[in-house]
Amino acid sequence: MLLNPIRPAALRSTLSVLALVLAAGVAVAQDRIAIKAGRIITQAGPEILNGVIVIENGRISAIGADVKVPWDVPVLDASKMTAMPGFVEAHSFRGMDRPNENVDVAPFLSVRDSIDPIAFYFEECLRYGITTINVQQGNQCVIGGQGLIVKPFGLTVEEMLVRPDAGLKLSATPKFGFSSATQAQSLRNAFGELRRHLEQLVADAKDGNDRARREALFQGRDLEGEKGKGKAMGGTTWKVDGLELVPRGEVDGKMEPLLDLVEGRVNAYIYCGRAMDVRTALEVARDNGFLARTTLIVDGSCWKAAAQIAEAGVPVVLGAPLTVIERDPITGKETETFAPTEFQKKGVRFAFSSSNSTTESLWFQAATAVANGFTREAALDAVTKNAAEFLGLGKRLGSLEVGKDGNVALFSGDPLSITATVQYVVIEGKQVYDRSKDIRVKSLMEGKIPAGTTPMGGDADAGHVHDDGCGTIGDDEHDAKKDDKDKKDEKKPADKKDEKKEEKKDDKTGDEKKGSGN
Amino acid sequence: MHPQATHWATHRALCWTVLAAAFGGPVSASTDGGKTSASPAGSVTLIKAAKVILRPGKIEEHTSVLVQDGKIIAIGANLTAPEGAREIEGEVVCAGFIDAWSSFGVDADALRDERVSAASLTTDAWDPYVDERFRLDVLRGGVTSMRVGLAPNAKVGGVGAVVRLHPRISDRRAIVLADACIALGVGITRSSRGLDPFDRLADVDRALGAVGDGWSYLQDKVEYKHELEAWQKTVADKEKELEDGAKKAKKDREKEKGDAEKAGKEFKEKAYKEDKRPKPPRFDDDKEVLARAANGELPVVVEVHRAVELRSFLDGAARYDRTRWILAGASESLPFAKQLADHGITVLVSPTPMGQMRTEEMRDADPSLAGRLSEAGVKVLIGSGMERPLGSRDLALVAQIAIGNGLPREKAFEALTLGAARAFDVADRIGSVEVGKDADLLVLDGEPLLAATRVRYVLSAGDLVITPEN
User: Number of residue pairs across A and B with CB atoms under 8 Å?
Assistant: First the structure.
């Protein structure tokens, strides 16, 4: 466990992130920033053309076409670009040393201990305009542990933190080789055990108090009025009466996170890999009073249970692929179902997650939804507003409005176009990403390795792209001038983008555990 | 113990209310049970038949059955269809068949899972989203519900359930009873791993031991209850005594304190003693279920085949007179027929066609077993066995093998309907044609369980799911 088998890769990314951070730090480090954007997709009303977003102390203080920029506020000129609220990743188990997939019932584990701030994943999030990530333990557990909501920027977990109590990860689907019978059994038993533990504590406390009273009577003393230091149990379904007699510190720390869940203090994210597991998930949530705070992390095939999910009123987070292919058992004919459509039909709210895959990032998921008949707004909601809402951050994230967090991604073109790239990312008013200074992109696209830095990924042939001598895609304003149509005509930049992706795939194999959950 | 237990309890109560209302009042009984039906409120079907088999042995000629909201609400000769009702005509109407031994819809992983314990629930592993075509196939065979179980190879196979087949019901409503039985296995040599005779006999001890554990757990609980009551009484008495003497105790204390001060000694409180509160037996979810089984609340289905194990098992089982045993398979049970009949032990047979034996043990199975056992007065049930999930489709065929080899057709019919429903405690819901019961009905063009008879219509929870057209 302690030995990190991928040390060299981690070291490499350390260097690159450090370089990235330095580059970004130089650009803007003030408390205030004004972003001039050619087009602003607010996700809260009509788009704004040639508008300004002013961010003060991390929050948006003004937004609009006729906002005047105070003279002393530094301006990020993106007047040829499109501004979007930063994408919100509603569920991910990347960015960790490794997610918990081994200890079946581990409500006490927290991703805080395994998040790796310099993981390549967080760097990639910036390149794809993701500004908030709900990092949760893996899918292969019964109760995986506690998650955190972080931003992909900062050198310590504390710095990255958006919200500390992101809730608990549970799983209704058994890991390979195990069955749903025993999975559901352990899931229920975990809560049964909590209940019996609390009942025992209360019984012991009552017993102690009663005995103390009798002892005082016997000895002829007055009983000193010692009151319970605890708190009565909250929650909606089951309660252990008399918990106020027990100081909360006496509750077994290993089970306490489950008590938080039952008392409705934290969210639950329950993984359902098959439609048949939805029932187990909903039942456990309902029986233990956290249905209202539950989000299902579903595989596309769960669309068959959409009616049950709608009835329970819980939202879902859909991973890629969004299209489910089923084979007819008799004819062998394949039918395709676009899962989000089925969920929408039944009135289930949904968000997309990138299934921890870089090549199926959130913009791509949203674009796929548009290609399958969704409106642009609905598709973008699924990667911004809805996701923010499910994380309990609807008031802070998901749209560009006065008072919300200043998380903005600036695209060279339309965010749903394959040829557009993220040029700048601003998180809480800090400009944390600038593509023109992205060393990795530069070395991949141009073969240029800035002086004083290590070659990206350390491989000697990182510069082979250099040979065809093309310009970069993202060399900001120049390219942004061209509209998408122009770009499609130009074949070379598109080709290059593919190559870039190839390169990245090679690069990332080190520090991400691909397929470790699905 | 089961979160849904209370739910089903209330549900059963509801059914009885409906039943009572139906008996007491006229045809238009209350239909509160509408929740169990997938049909839109007010969906009504009237079935006119030349013959209705109300339950095994009780036949009504030229009568009609009125179905509303998933329930049978009236049976009578002169029923007229309310406006908008669907009308069906047929020769024979009877209750839908119940496959007493099936694995249809159970997650394949759960059939192999070796971690299954007594408290594992089959309903957790039952996939209600099985391809509709499979469900229709089984329904076409006249099977409307089945007793499903987990891990047939396990020594202790968990809690079995009775589930209903319906192409569109995919939620809790498809579960007729979540805790219908508990399953044990003795000396099963499936997956070509032969057990030696000693292992097989050890299996007998294991199975009986499991029930024995449940029994002692139950006793411990009862004992604890008594101990606790006794302790509470003692303490209450003591408390009263102390409260009565509180004034005196206070005075004494003051006095002693004063004396101690005078004598220049340290004052010490009197030591108080009382009996400790008795400790409850340690909670064990498996034993909770086994206790219910030992106590006869849940039937225990034991798959056992060889005469050696059967003898040893029957000797041991005699100790548990409350337990309701159902022997499954029981290939070599004929020599014990009298013993089985005397002890009221039911036998669940699966007269599988030649070449499709599930286990080595069943190779010697005699197709006349059901007939001979029945002749000896043993209660017989028939199931398709668990090996092939789609086996339930051929339940009628399996029954016909038994009929062809000596089991009277009426007995076979009973085994497939009310007999199975009674054995698994669902006779208040399914298994016969009665007012207030769930409308799981077959409309046939002839006598049931004859090879030439065809199933024309099938109603599942009041919905017409099979018609001659589909």
Answer: 110
